[in-house]
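Sharing a chain and its predicted structure for anyone who wants a worked example. Both blocks are below, sequence first, tokens second.
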Amino acid sequence: MISLTVNGKNYAVDVPEDMTLLWVLRDHLKLTGTKFSCGIGECGSCTVLIDGEPERSCMIAAEDVAGANITTIEGLPEDHPVKRAWIQEQVVQCGYCQPGTIMQVAGLLEQNKNPKPQDIFASMDNIICRCGTYQRMKKGVETAINIMKKEGPSS
């Protein structure tokens, strides 16, 4: 039995010790916003926040994050500046990679409220978007930063 804290709720899951966090979230907790894509930690679709840091859930055994605070796209408030910016800038095309992308950006902005362009590019460098909405993503990050400057971050 593994004890996990996901989106502020405590769960006890009986899963094999080597099951990845991705499959625990999707199959056992029914939090399907976190997507499976490459399965090797390269694309970013499965990104969640673990203690505020963006991490690839397909590469982490669930038992390794017992005791950590895990946030999925479902746990990010609807009025979070990144979600609002993504809507305002119409970032999403097909949308498949966007939950992980949003979590990547939310993690960046949690650590650095005013990142330089090179910080944004470094953070987004390992996101793979099949639709190629990278320029929209960059604009979305800039808009989220502006929202945070005006209003302060949502939590």
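Comments welcome. Residues 2-75 form a domain with the Ubiquitin-like (UB roll) fold (CATH 3.10.20.30).
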